[in-house]
Amino acid sequence: MIRDDVQRLVVEALTAAQQAGEIPLFAPPEIQVEHPARAEHGDYSANLPLRIQGLARMKALEVAEALRRHVPSHPAVAEVRVAPPGFLNFYLDATWLASQVTAIVAEGAAYAGSSSGAGQRLQIEYVSANPTGPVHVGNGRGAAIGSTLARVLRAAGYEVEEEYYVNDAGTQVAVFARTLYARYQQLFGRTVEIPENGYPGEYMVQIAEQIRERHADRFLRPVGEEASPELGELGIQLMVDQIRDDLELLRVQYDRWFSERSLQTEGGPYSEVMRILEERGHIVRREGAVWFASSQLGESKDNVLIRSDGVPTYFASDVAYHYDKFVLRGFDRVIDIWGADHQGHVSRVKAAVTAVGGDGDHLDVLLYQLVTLKRGTEVVPLSKRAGEIVTLRDVVSEVGADAARFFFLSPSAGSTMDFDLELATRQSDENPVYYVQYAHARISSILSRAASEELSSEGAETSLLTHDAEQALLRKLLLLPEVVEQVVSSLETHHLPAYAQSLAQSFHVFYTQCRVITDDVPLTKARLALLEATRTVLARTLELMSISAPEQM
């Protein structure tokens, strides 16, 4: 990235200025290079003079002038200026900027990739909704964020494994099984009420019908007897299959579906975790329950692992699950993506990871906020009727996977989001995904027309790309590697759709101001090369979000 080159130039300038005696010797702080808020202040700016004026015992402007004199020449940099109160501003060379068109096209689908994560095994777990009902629209937000983050991390060189944690053990699964058996019996004419706190949704009837179609009355027991455990297991599997199918509609696929029950096998992770915690003095017993002594590790309170009735808590399973991730499978880093209602769970899981032999600092938990579904200005109730929710399938079926993913990704994870179904289906510039995809389609149309007229970018003189709109578009193309790095470092995927919209806007401005196919053949070739580079970057950005890049619209 050119930003990294500018950063190195600042480091070299400081070293040279110190060696020349113009700035005193001292260990410099980390060099920060940013984009100025205003274009007239250059392409990149370093505030180092302001940060070291105290160490140098000089005015910031004097430091900046000393640094400017020692900035080495670089083909990408046309000029370095000093600006009050003490900034070092870098202006990119127009010819060099235009020459990057060729490099971008050459990199193609690999553009903006890096090796920063090479050699690191990373696991990312997301959605993991209880398999007691279909995934809803809120789960879709976590799904889009998780799958996009996985793609970006792979582009940065990480070895990524995507996982869905199937909560197929515990109280809710038992309630699901009893509800399913009630619905199954009703299909055979029995008058049976669903259990208290059961699942009243129509989907339970549909699962019971699927089982009857495949197995007839095989699971019917005499009146009053409990259901066969096999019925509940089969129901959970059918529910997981439906969840898998629904998520695939959103282009989400996992490398592994991990069963919670597998943690509790004899000699498995759960029993091993309890042994380790006991051995290391992290277990206390009181009130008939078994507690994780997390207060000894800096937490505000201890947390129950096994209730007084002998039933393990969800927290106990989470500890065993993360032990499996870090210790047994040996991931270098783990990312969990949870709904914001799990915020209070984060620090205790990190503490437990460290207590059982992992590294809690290598566990990142990304929290995302709720989704409000709207149709124009009207809020759509997420619960349509008793027991029925607005499912992810409902939303994707209405707006399509492209719009669903773009809308889910657009706000930052930490902010609540309004999902406007009406806007998501609108074919106009008001719809952000349509706006971005239309830019790609328009470029493809121009390039197709050029090919039909036997025009190409072969032998293009990119130095002809001097128009303000061309230069602005070129600058935007160079930002994708920085955006990818920003997503990797912050785990915030909303930077991608924001960049896609900004790039599309720069293209549309260029298209309005600069005719591509003209009587000036050299200029036409140069602009066709610019379009090829723009299409490459747009397609790459959309691919990172698993959104299609149409050639016609």
Q: Would you write up a description of this structure?
A:
This protein has 553 residues and is of the alpha/beta class. Among the domains are: 91 residues, 2-Layer Sandwich (Gyrase A, domain 2); 135 residues, Isoleucyl-tRNA Synthetase, Domain 1 (Orthogonal Bundle); 79 residues, no CATH class. The chain has 19 helices and 17 strands. The strands form 5 sheets. It has a 5-stranded parallel beta sheet, with helices on both faces. Strand 5, helix 5 and strand 6 form a beta-alpha-beta unit. Helix 4 crosses helix 19. The protein is flat, with a radius of gyration of 29 Å. The chain starts with a helix and ends in a 9-residue tail after the last helix. The model has no long low-confidence stretch (mean pLDDT 95).
Architecture blueprint of SSEs:
Blueprint (H helix, E strand, L loop, with lengths): L1 H18 L13 E2 L9 E3 L1 H9 L3 H11 L6 E7 L3 E6 L1 H14 L13 E6 L10 H19 L3 E8 L4 H16 L15 H14 L13 H21 L6 E4 L9 H11 L3 E4 L2 E4 L10 E4 L7 H15 L4 E7 L6 H10 L7 E6 L2 E5 L2 E2 L3 E3 L2 E2 L2 H8 L1 H9 L7 E4 H4 L7 H21 L15 H10 L2 H11 L4 H19 L7 H24 L9
Parallel strand pairs: 5-6, 5-11, 6-7, 11-12, 13-17
Antiparallel strand pairs: 1-2, 2-4, 3-4, 8-9, 9-10, 13-14, 15-16
Helix pairs in contact: 1-3, 2-3, 4-16, 4-19, 5-12, 5-13, 6-7, 6-8, 9-10, 12-13, 15-18, 15-19, 16-18, 16-19, 18-19
